[in-house]
Amino acid sequence: SGSASPAVAELCQNTPETFLEASKLLLTYADNILRNPNDEKYRSIRIGNTAFSTRLLPVRGAVECLFEMGFEEGETHLIFPKKASVEQLQKIRDLIAIERSSRLDGSNKSHKVKSSQQPAASTQLPTTPSSNPSGLNQHTRNRQGQSSDPPSASTVTADSAILEVLQSNIQHVLVYENPALQEKALACIPVQELKRKSQEKLSRARKLDKDIITLRNFWKQDVDGVASGPIVLHCAAEL
C-alpha cells in the first residue's frame, strides 16, 4: 500500500487519470534502471525533458517518488547515483505498481458496468426510421451543442500544468543571471586573452576580404581587358 511511502501516498491523491499517466512514466524510469543497471543513460533524467516537465513535474508527489527511489537533484538532471540502493528503488517501484494495478482494475470494472447499462439506455431512443432527416438534424444539433460546452476539468488541469512548467523554467533560467555567479565565472575565464585572439582573427579576416576584393577587381578589369584585346584574339584565331 502507498501508506508505506509518503511520496506514493501523496501521488495517490491525484485524479485517476493523472495518477495513471504519472505512474506509468515513473515505472518506466525505474524499470529501465532495473533492467540495465550498468547503463548510465538510464540513471539520469533531464529536468527540461518534455515528458518529465509536463507529466511528472506538475503532479503532486511524482518527483518525491523519484527522490524516495534514490534519485538526487543536479543542476540540469535528476541522477540515480551508483551508491543508491537498488532495493529501495525496487520497493518504491512495487508500491507504485500495486496502486496502479488497483486503479486499473477499478477502471475496468466501471467500464463493464457502464457497458452492461448501455442497452437499457438505447431502448429509450425513439423508434424513428433511419431515413428520417429530422433524426440526423437532431444528432447534428447535439454535436454542435457539445462542441460549445465549457472546457473540461482535464483541459483546465493540463493548462495549469503547462503554466507551472513555464513558471518553473523561468525561475531556473534566473539562476544564470546571478551577478555573483557571473563574476565567479569571469574570474575563471582569460577574458583579455580571448579578446586579443578574437581581434587578431578579425584583422586577418578583414585583410583576407580586402585581398579577395582586389583579386576580383583584377580579373574583372585587368584580365578581361587583356583577354579581349586584338593580340589575344589574333592568337586565339591561329590556335
UniProtKB/TrEMBL annotation:
Gene3D superfamilies: 1.20.58.2190, 3.10.620.30. InterPro entries: PNGase, PUB-like_dom_sf, PUB_domain. Residues 115-156 have a biased composition (Polar residues). Residues 103-156 are annotated as: Disordered. CDD domains: PUB_PNGase (cd10459). Residues 17-93 form the PUB domain. PANTHER family: PEPTIDE N-GLYCANASE PNGASE -RELATED, PEPTIDE-N(4)-(N-ACETYL-BETA-GLUCOSAMINYL)ASPARAGINE AMIDASE. This is NGLY1 isoform 9. It comes from Pan troglodytes. The lineage of its organism: Eukaryota, Metazoa, Chordata, Craniata, Vertebrata.
